[in-house]
Amino acid sequence: MYRIGFGNDIHRLETGVKLILGGVEIESDLGAVGHSDADALLHAVTDAILGALALGDIGAHFSDKNERWKNADSLIFLREAVLLMKEKGFAVVNLDSVINLEIPKLCPHINRMRENLARVLEIEIECVSVKAKTGEQVDAVGKRQAIKTEAVILLEKKS
Ligand code: MG
User: Fold this and answer.
1) Gap from CA of 81 to ligand 1 centroid (Å)
2) pTM over cut 0.85
3) How far is the CA of 88 from the centre of ligand 1 (A)?
4) Could you tell me the domains of the chain?
5) pLDDT under 50 in the chain at which residues?
């Protein structure tokens, strides 16, 4: 049996905070604001897994009201979602994702993000896609006010 899941995320961009995507710290004048480390890619992927299993959303599992998750490494959230997935007998088939960010260009960092995701999702890097798009200078992304992400994941139940 297959299950498909979708997740997305948005974080405000500001000066003086880090920009972390897919567990990779990226040099940037603007960083993402959030309760945790604000890793918008990992949040979208975590939500996609939870969505595939109809287990609610990332906020239900890791509330931004909980001090425990303040500045938390978002890999913790993803690892927990993977654990829940495995408990239900599922494994990841493949992941596709998009990061919408105006600046900086992400190509030099994409493979490290894919490696991090492949390791936690327990799949080959060939099954992990991370794509990057700009906002063409329009909308919140294009005006460098926000970073947005989207992720689709396919899970398969192992018999
Ligand atoms: Mg988020």
Assistant:
1) 15
2) yes
3) 25
4) 2-157 (3.30.1330.50)
5) none
